[in-house]
Amino acid sequence: MVKICIIPKNKSQKDEIIEFLLRGKYLLTVLSMENCVLTKIGTKNRTVRLKKIVISGIIRHLQFNNLNDRLREMYRSNMPILYSIPIIQMDPQQSDAIANYITVF
Length: 105
Fold this sequence. Notes:
Blueprint (H helix, E strand, L loop, with lengths): L1 E6 L3 H13 L7 E11 L5 E13 L4 H11 L6 E6 L5 H10 L4
Antiparallel strand pairs: 1-3, 1-4, 2-3
């Protein structure tokens, strides 16, 4: 299993993606965090802070490429940032419950 993170370009794209993830049964639950602060070193070597939206959830790792392809079809010229983070460890008693929550394509 992997945790996916999607950073949409704007609020309307966020709403579309959440609807797509839930209706397409890619995820049964979606965590959406607004006003996340992204900090980086910008021009003139100064710290820059940007507010971003982050969508996350857990999927089977084999579903990632399918999800990526579908989002590329939907947003050819405005693709949101999409990446996954492997889940290395979790409580063994909870792993079965989480695995049962995840829908297979």
